[in-house]
Amino acid sequence: MGRGRSEIKRIENPTQRQSTFYKRRDGLFKKARELAVLCDADLLLLLFSASGKLYHYLAPTVPSVKDFVERYEAATHSKVWSDIRQRSPLAIEQERRAELEKVGKMCDILEKELRFMTVDDREQYTVPSLAGLEQSLEAAMRKVRFEKDRKIGGEMSYLENMIRGKQAERYGLCDKVSASSSFPVPVSL
Predict the structure, then answer these.
(1) How many CB atoms lie within 10 A of CB 147?
(2) For the segment 129-138, what is each residue's pLDDT rounded down to a tens digit?
């Protein structure tokens, strides 16, 4: 008998929470080891408990955490390993402002696109802006149609495979019946 699914929410009982943490931590680390061994994957797993205790797993193929993080930085073109103490407060503040400005611009663009997707009768639109809206909507419709066709195709394949399986099962049963009985069994398609 299988276990039912439980709602994922914070466990209120501290004893149960700690017990669940240890069990799930062990399961997570076991899966990490298996992934590293089976797939020859380089893996770093860092986990902090609620009390702040650090647990980590480093795949045997990875020489050190620092090397792994440097590889990550090179792959993502981002800085994780930078030492904040070496940077001046002014540089940190400028970096934060630049990031906030970048996010603000992105929000403005997304809000503009969202407003653009809803045509308001009270606003005056130019022909080029309406043509742009039409192109955006057509592109969205193409994506929706493609996804719908993909889902329908998947369902059709599934049903066709199920029909083939049922037919094979039927033929097998007919063969068993004909072999066990002295009367011929007509097979019609």
Answers:
(1) 10
(2) 778 778 888 8
Rounded distance between C-alpha atoms, residue 75 and residue 61, angstroms: 18
* Mean pLDDT of the 4-25 span: 85
Cβ atoms of 46 and 54 closer than 8 Å? yes
Coil, helix or strand at residue 56: strand
Instruction: Specify the DSSP class assigned to residue 57.
Output: E
Residue listed under structure tokens 């970048």: 102
Burial class (CB in 10 A: 0-12, 13-18, 19+), 36: buried
Q: How far is CA 114 from the centre of its chain?
A: 25
Q: What is the mean pLDDT of the chain?
A: 81
Higher-scoring residue by pLDDT: 90, 24: 24
Nearest residue to 31 via CA among 21, 41, 16, 18: 41
Largest CA distance in the chain: 95
How far is the C-alpha of 172 from the C-alpha of 114, rounded, in Å? 58
Long-range contacts of 31-38 (CB under 8 A, 24+ apart): 32/57, 32/59, 33/57, 36/60, 36/61
C-alpha 147/C-alpha 149 separation (Å) is 5
**Least confident segment among 114-118, 120-124, 125-129, 181-185:** 181-185
Cα–Cα distance measured from residue 126 to residue 179, given in angstroms and rounded to the nearest whole number: 79
